[in-house]
Each structure stands twice: as C-alpha cells, then as structure tokens.
Amino acid sequence: MQIVAGTSLKSLGPRVWDPNSQYHIPSLTAVMVSYADFHHQPAQRRRAMEMGIHASLGIPDNISVFLDNGAFYFSMRGEAIPIRDYDEFVENAHPSWRPIPRDFIPAPNMSLDEQRQCLNRTMRVNRDYQHNGYVPVAHIGRMLHEYVAKIKANAQLVAKPRIALGAIVPNLLRAPKALPYKHILDSLIQFRNDFADKKIHIFGIGGTATLHFAMLLKIDSVDSSGWRNRAARGIIQLPGSGDRSIAELGSWKGRALSRQEMKILRECLCPACQQEGVRGLKADGVRGFRNRATHNLWTLLEEAKWIEENLAAGIYKEAYKEHLDNTIYRPLIEYLVNGLLKNQVSEKSKVRSPLN
Ligand SMILES: [Zn+2]
Which one of 71, 174, 186, 267 is at 20 to 30 Å from 78 when CA atoms are compared? Predict the structure, then answer.
C-alpha cells in the first residue's frame, strides 16, 4: 500500500521527499497537497501552472504528487468551491493524481435523506467528470452500497481504473468501540470485492493503528497529514502504538513515554533520530517540529512495511496481537482478521473438497 504524505504549502519542511534534505526518507513515494492551499496563495498557484506542480514545489519526478480538491476545507469555512479554477489548475499543473473537483461529504448525524442527497450530488459530479483522469469519489457510511450500484450502472465510471473513498474519520474511526459499525466494515469489504480491478485510495487516515485497518482491506493508497499535525502538538508515534507526548506544547496533554518506549526511541533509525537523537524530538520551534514530523512519517512507513511482511509471511493473524498496543481500533482489526481467516479457510477447503 502506498502511503501518501499530506503536506502544506504554508510550510513545506521537512522536505522528506528531497534526496538533498537532511530529512530525506528514501522509502517515501508520494505526497499530497490540497487545492485549498493553492487557492489561497495565488502566486504559488500561478507558479505551479507555469512550471508544473513538481518543479514549482521542488519535488522530484519519481515522487507522485496527489492533489486533494479541498472540498472538506471549503465546506467547513462556508466558502464556495472554485470548480473552474480547479479545472484550470489541474490542466496546467499536472498533478499525478486528482479527484473530481467537488464532493459532498456526509456526516454520521445526518438523516438518511440528507445522506442520500450528498450521494446524489457527489454522483452528479462523478458523472460530469468521467473524462481525463479525474478520480471518482464515494463516501464511507450508510450509502456506500448505493454508490456501488450507481457507479456500476454507469459504463464510463465502472471502467475507471481508480476510485477514492472519503469520510472514513467521522463515519468509522471516531467511535469504533461498540461495533454497530460491522455493517460499515462489511460494506467496505464488499466495496473492495466489487471494484477488485480498481486502485482504491482512502482519504485522511490518521496514525499507525489505522494503517492496519486499511491494509487488511487491501486498499491501494492512503494519505495522512497526521505526521505533521501530531508533530506540531509535540507528539510522536512509535511502532504499533498510539500517540506519545514528547515535547510539552500547547494544551494537548498526551501519554508520556514509558522506559521501554524510550528504549525503542533511542534505537530509532529515522533520519531525525539518527542526527539528533531523542533530544532533537524534544526541541521546540521549527527544528523540533521537523524532527518529530520526520520521525512520525518514518514510523508510519515502517509500520506499513511491518504489516506487509507479516501478511505476506502468513503470520499477521498472531503477530499483530503482540505488536499492536491497546488501540481503540483493535476490535475493528480483530473483526477484519477473523473475516480474513474465515475466507482463507474456506478457500483451502474448497480446493481440498473431493466434490470440487
Ligand atoms: Zn526517529
């Protein structure tokens, strides 16, 4: 699965994609920037349209640049979505990946009718933009199966090689404990099966634990800005565990590191820890932010590698129990693992059965 590092035009550092940067992370293959950022910085927007998005940001060509349409940002601020400007930008700046210019994100507290309205309006944009490499968008929630039906009913949309899923955070990851969310997980598994030929991207996945979830669902790519957001609040991430507070910044009081976790941290091989060690993570100002952000992104990429290797070796089902801290997402992961296990067994028994 490709991890797309969400970044911001306001402060591009740490330049984790840049081989000449002290923060370079060689295993990173993709970054995401939001059109909302370009929209608010006309000079940057113009430059990107003149030089192409890669050259204007100094991002090497072998790193994919995903563009977010900024729909969430614009709607949160009640700003009109500049569809024409977005089209013009996409045409000239040549991002490697871009969604339809606008989607209508449902909130879980909306009535079914309101959610259906979001779907109908988003589907209208999906149909209007079935051309030129725009990636159609669907939303996780009670309407997902209807998205599948509507996309399948449209010959052009169903032929698209890619699709993106939004709204994972409000609909699934915010309160996963009770698992009335089983049907959402089931509908995601179904979605993956229905669109087995497509590359699925999930927007806005948070930390290390949610990676497990996306990889079990065989999602092709996810983006996360968590590495930067957490760093700005003095938070670092560790393999298989949740957020830990390392620098006291702002009002957010996170869990402190245990002695064992500190030991893991001292052995960290990320570019930031290799240069400055734990002290660098604790630093304040830009230096501390860049060190923590680099460390967080490195940890995320390493976690993905761990999951991939353990799944490939067929030992994930047991290994994750040791590896994963007591995350609130554990019931979701358990549910998916059990589902996978069941499928694997039934595949085998199919082959072995003399009746087949
Ligand atoms: Zn580190």
Answer: 174
pLDDT means over runs of 10, the chain (356 residues):
96 95 98 96 97 97 97 87 94 98 88 93 96 92 91 96 87 55 83 95 85 92 94 92 81 78 94 96 95 97 96 93 82 84 48 39
- Ligand 1 centre from 265 Cα, in Å? 6
CA distance 183 to 57: 42
| Residues by chain with Cβ below 5 Å of ion ligand 1 | 268, 270, 273, 295
Distance 218 CA to ligand 1 centre (A): 27
How many Å lie between the centroid of ligand 1 and the Cα of residue 241?
14
Q: For the chain, how long is the longest CA-to-CA vector?
A: 69
d(CA 236, CA 323) in angstroms, rounded, equals 17
* Residue 78 backbone zone (phi > 0: left; psi -120 to 50: alpha; other: beta): left
Considering only CA atoms, which of 345, 350, 316, 349 is closest in space to residue 333? 316
